[in-house]
Write a structure and sequence with these properties.
CATH architecture of the largest domain: 3-Layer(aba) Sandwich
Largest sheet: 6 strands, parallel
Order of helices and strands: EHHEEHEHHEHEEHHEHEHEHHEEHHH
Structural class: alpha/beta
Shape: globular
Number of helices: 15
CATH class of the largest domain: Alpha Beta
CATH topology of the largest domain: Rossmann fold
Helix content: 40-55%
Strand content: 15-25%
Number of strands: 12
CATH superfamily of the largest domain: Glycogen Phosphorylase B
């Protein structure tokens, strides 16, 4: 008999849900390993919905309302998994969510959510250490993973010495920190084009002499457009902060799967990926290395991700957790 799993994501259509919520649990459902009930906020007052559900997964529960939902499903008898893809205890003051999470009450709500879960899943070891510094919680690291068909086959079209960056406005400060790097690369490669997928950093583009292009649109169209890019190098510049040291590797995964060689700030999230990491001062030399060894580095990174970081591989850990919790029976 299939295990029935309830999944709740605060925003089912955002990228985090694709990597941590509806994406991975939809994959398990398609494989016939579980049956999923996709939950909405209004469902939590309806006890009848939860009578066949064994485990409820909450993606990034951070509020008092989230905690009340967790308490309700526990009262219905369900086991609980909570999942995080960011370190909510160390959000920098320039992040747009800082005010939402800086208060003691907000941090208390997150701790309550964590404390009430049977298992906490996170995307990086650094998030695990931030959550579980006391050693009180059952925290399991499950890295982000992709489905290759999101991006289609690796493009064989000729690539040129252009640059791609992808991300949202939450990375504005990272880009400000690295503005001088972008301008330096622009001077070094005056014929190169800079493609910005998502947020468009006007404060960089207005000072670059190079052509700058931007794309904004639905998530899967974004994957398609990123894969169509003819640029060789994907840039992932990040401030060296505690928050960024806990971030996951989504940016690198998307750039690798769309045929880029990634040059990124040397942070823990990238240590196992076959990409080029460097200090802020080392970006220029690293880009030169990426251009000159593009074919080898591109294929090496692509093969690594499609071998070790697909949902078929990584979701083995998720199904183990679901089966373990279901075997304990209802609360």
């Amino acid at each position: 008999m299939q295990i029935v799993v309830g999944v709740y994501s605060p925003n089912p259509e955002d990228a985090t849900s694709l990597y941590r919520g509806w994406g991975p649990y939809g994959h398990l459902a398609r494989r016939g390993l579980i049956r999923v009930v996709w939950l909405r906020p209004e469902d939590f007052n309806r006890w009848n919905i939860f009578q066949e559900i064994s485990v409820v997964v909450f993606q990034r529960p951070t509020s008092a309302a989230s905690f009340r939902m967790i308490e309700m499903v526990k009262n219905y008898g369900c086991r609980v998994v909570v999942d995080y893809d960011d370190d909510y205890f160390n959000i920098p003051d320039h992040n747009k969510t800082y005010l939402e999470y800086k208060s003691a009450d907000a941090k208390c709500s997150i701790i309550q959510c964590i404390s009430s879960a049977d298992i906490v899943t996170v995307s990086t070891q650094a998030i695990s250490e931030s959550i579980n510094s006391s050693g009180l919680y059952n925290v399991v690291v499950i890295p982000n993973a992709i489905e290759p068909h999101w991006f289609g086959p690796l493009s064989i079209q000729p690539k040129v010495n252009d640059f791609s960056w992808r991300g949202l406005d939450s990375h504005a400060e990272d880009l400000r920190e690295y503005k001088s790097v972008f301008l330096s690369l622009g001077k070094q490669y005056p014929n190169s084009v800079f493609d910005f997928f998502g947020y468009f950093p006007f404060f960089i583009a207005r000072d670059l002499k190079n052509t700058c292009r931007t794309y904004k649109g639905p998530l899967f169209n974004y994957f398609t457009e990123l894969s169509k890019s003819d640029s060789k190098v994907g840039l992932v510049p990040l401030e060296d902060t505690k928050f960024n040291r806990a971030k996951s590797n989504i940016a690198a995964l998307e750039l690798i799967m769309s045929g880029h060689v990634v040059v990124a700030t040397n942070l823990p999230e990238f240590k196992d990926l076959p990409i080029i990491t460097c200090t802020k001062e080392g970006f220029s030399a690293s880009v030169e290395k990426a251009f000159s060894n593009y074919n080898k580095l591109q294929l090496e990174a692509y093969n690594y991700v499609t071998t070790f970081l697909t949902l078929d591989v990584v979701n083995q850990k998720r199904i183990e957790i679901i089966r373990e919790l279901a075997s304990k029976g209802r609360i």
